[in-house]
Specification:
The protein is α+β, with helices and mostly antiparallel strands. It is about 25% helix and about 35% strand. It has a single domain, classed as Deoxyribonuclease I, Chain A. The strands form 2 sheets. It has a 7-stranded mixed beta sheet with strand order 1-5-6-4-3-14-13. A 7-stranded mixed beta sheet has the order 2-7-8-9-10-12-11. Helix 2 crosses helix 3.
Length: about 260
């Protein structure tokens, strides 16, 4: 009897561990405000720097995981969208979004895409020095595996103006076209607006091409010119703002380059 009880107990433990390890999609959510820095910028900024960066969980091409390097990379950005952001690891440490934001004295909004091990596991992050008036997180359709994706829309207050920022990270597999369609449809509803993220899509995609032919601007292409790569999948797409200077820093701190652009109202 004791042996049977032991076997059943072990089987239950294994079943519970398996259930906790399975990624599950994070449901939709909305809110007002985000965790603030020491002090919000409340000036009527005529221009600001926006950026997108897939941080690869803070892991560089050298195999080292160093969030200090990641934080330094985005130090010049007023608004940055980060992808592949993890929560606290099993070995401790704070959420990567918090660590990076605090290093730059910015606020942060972590938008988890999935839960695992009974906690938020990974997702996307908005880091900004401006107040966020409201935000909405919505899951995107998923028909391939358990790597769930979402789109978050946030309304920032820049002095007396509103700026809509949408950020996301799309799939590489089947269903990406449907995810992209949903993102672009949402983007079409706002102006002035910026879409930031790793879309896993190049400019040859018909949906992106159509949007860029009807008022939206590929800010990365505009600032990089001939130095831009045709296989780029990281995007800064704008509406209702002008583009100034910008640039790119090659992969190294992450497996993706870092892209930034200055926008003007």
């Amino acid at each position: 009897m004791n042996t049977l009880l032991l076997v059943l107990t072990l089987a239950l433990i294994v079943a519970l561990l398996w259930a906790a390890s399975v990624p599950r999609p994070k449901p939709a959510a909305r809110g007002t405000g985000i965790i603030p820095p020491a002090g919000w910028r409340e000036d009527d900024a005529d221009s600001l720097v926006v950026a997108t960066y897939n941080i690869h969980g803070g892991k560089g091409l050298d195999g080292k995981r160093d969030l200090d390097r990641t934080a330094q990379m985005i130090a010049g950005a007023d608004v940055a969208a980060l992808q592949e952001v993890r929560t606290a690891t099993r070995f401790g440490g704070g959420c990567q979004a918090e660590v990076i934001a605090r290093a730059n004295d910015k606020g942060w909004l972590f938008a988890p895409t999935q839960t695992r091990w009974l906690r938020d596991f990974r997702g996307n992050t908005l880091i900004t020095g401006f107040p966020v008036q409201e935000w909405q997180r919505e899951p995107l359709v998923n028909i391939a595996g358990r790597r769930y994706r979402n789109l978050t829309t946030a309304r920032l207050r820049i002095g007396h103006r509103d700026l809509w920022v949408l950020f996301t990270h799309l799939h590489t597999r089947a269903g990406r076209d449907m995810q992209l369609r949903a993102v672009l449809e949402r983007f079409a509803q706002y102006e002035p607006a910026i879409l930031l993220g790793d879309l896993n899509t190049t400019r040859t995609d018909p949906q992106l091409a159509a949007v860029l032919q009807h008022g939206a601007v590929d800010a990365v292409r505009q600032v990089l010119g001939d130095q831009d790569r045709d296989d780029r999948v990281d995007w800064i797409i704008t509406k209702g703002v002008a583009i100034g200077t910008g640039g790119m820093r090659d992969a190294g701190v992450s497996d993706h380059p870092y892209f930034w652009a200055t926008i003007r109202f």
